[in-house]
């Protein structure tokens, strides 16, 4: 069979365009030609704004919007698992990061599911702050046509457990939305609760959103790009610790370490702004102390995830020992009938206060009891990895990853105590020793796409870590945009982290400005927010020039003080009232020009 050629005078292409098209497709298979045909048809529809036609029945299928609001990645993992469940049930679902969600369209949502964590003192995760503020503002619309479900993740060691989930749940209902399921508040060990909730959500939504027709299903599975790697939180990479260097002075009150980890030929990739997840081993001496206080030996068999292990091994590798919680205190008091702890039972504030001040081992020391091994395991929470802001760019360090670790050290009645992960890296892993790691990607803390965009970096203490990565990346890219660093710590001579590197960047002209706040070098304490206020006029000029603002460090105090100061600067130099300044900063957040990595 032959195909008659179309006369050239009837074609919409001139001879030169036709020749280029024929040359480009000369070796294409029929399948490839068909794909290209469909590709250009799709491009045409995108450009013209035309909608893709779907069968009438498919067009009526309600769409499920699934919002992931994550701080450390757990909420994102739950949301991704739910998305997979819904797609497997042939339901039409769209998964969206809370930071990418166009929240003014929320009134058009028919079926809405929110999976959210909580950070700081009951605040929403960084990527959900704008959505949270919108829903709690006067601009929030009525949601009479929306049905919703909320899953909250939290940590009972914090006072405002799952507060963000509670906020979204109550506000959506207050705005008129129908609650499909009661909210679930999950602790650190969230997996079982999440699996049960996901199954209930799928069943409820199957009744509300009929199964999608095949034509609809083909276009309904679009979700945000997901970082893929063979190494995950559940299956970490066994890497090598190559450098452990103390970078605070001999007389510093802080012990801060620069840690370098060799990723070898793993191919593990990260970007500036990402975090490194570190699995750690509890201090064997701490385990020995706890076991002996309970009149145990450490060789008692216990069951962990279906496996039988000696108690000491289970405590070293599988359970959290350095963070106490109100729930643990309450359960220990009830189980042991401790005379000193029983009066705290039922008093949430007292329990929180006691747990925050008293590590588990000291709780047992102050209120001794005899427990069997399984009872002890039943009290404890599973060990979870710690996340550290990455302090390097692979454009410079290639197959390495660097982190800046503030080692937690303190005393309880003369007994030395330390943070689990920080002391593991600083004290217990020898150079060339094994460290199990993974990358926690953070698309909400990224350098501007345009290398000419100015950057303002605010990072006191170990909050300086990601900005070291930023500068390495900007240097490697030859970025022409201006860079301004605000850094603070107690003393100039003891606590100027990476001092030589910053001075080198200033000398080279890459670091345009640096403002330093030393809180203990003079009688009056000076913090980074004081430097921001002092440089208010210039700060406002940079903002007007399109600068992106980044904040990294303590969420509860520093980040709040910095935000308050930014609002003051915007109000004063932008001639705005407080409400307008707040809206201005919120808009910067929505535009990804104000990003925070706080903890």
TrEMBL record:
EC assignment: 1.8.1.2
Residues holding FAD: 322, 356, 386-389, 404-406, 410, 419-422, 599
Listed cofactors: FAD; FMN
Textual note on the cofactor: Binds 1 FAD per subunit.
Catalytic reactions on record: hydrogen sulfide + 3 NADP(+) + 3 H2O = sulfite + 3 NADPH + 4 H(+)
PROSITE patterns in the record: FAD_FR, FLAVODOXIN_LIKE
Subunit structure: Alpha(8)-beta(8). The alpha component is a flavoprotein, the beta component is a hemoprotein.
Role: Component of the sulfite reductase complex that catalyzes the 6-electron reduction of sulfite to sulfide. This is one of several activities required for the biosynthesis of L-cysteine from sulfate. The flavoprotein component catalyzes the electron flow from NADPH -> FAD -> FMN to the hemoprotein component.
Name this protein carries in UniProt: Sulfite reductase [NADPH] flavoprotein alpha-component
Designated gene of the protein: cysJ
